[in-house]
Design goal:
single chain, 201 residues, 10 strands, 12% helix
Amino acid sequence: MPNHGGGAESWRRLKPIGAEGGIFYNQVKEIKPMKMQPVLFAGITVGLAIGMSQWQMVQASIMPGRLSGLMIPMVETAPAMAKPAAMAKPAMAKVLMAGSFVKAEHPTMGGASVVMKDGKQYLMFDQKFKSDEGPDLFVLLHREATPKQYGEADYVSLGRLQQVNGAQVYEIPAGVKVEEFKSAVIWCKQFSATFGFAMLK
């Protein structure tokens, strides 16, 4: 039988086949089991050991604690946002009386109201309030619905008129019984002239 080398391959003579008087050979590759070399086995063993060690470190890195003296970083979660405390609603003013200005000796218009807020009473003019300029103008609460007399017992003064137009507020002195007064008045003290008034109901 011819021998061509080849390590794990060998030639085997088979039963003659084919033409008469001739002999044919079929090449058969016989696979011989390979012997595992000691160096290769040791390399695989070391590789597996390193792989297991790295996997343990990965597991430890996602768990809080320490590994062989090495600090494992802790993942801090953001603190939950506290809900804002409910703000106290401002006290609403309670309207006790209200009316609209009419002219007397001078054009006067807009709204007036007596309100209670936080235990105090106020006279308020709205944004539409408007009157004429005068030398000595005061804001009064008058006992008459249509003021005619200005004796000391007929009214209570809330002070000088702040401005001749727009919203404004006047505090009513404590102890004044607003239900005893029937109108809010713009009054010129110097000439005792009624510029305008609002009947309060």
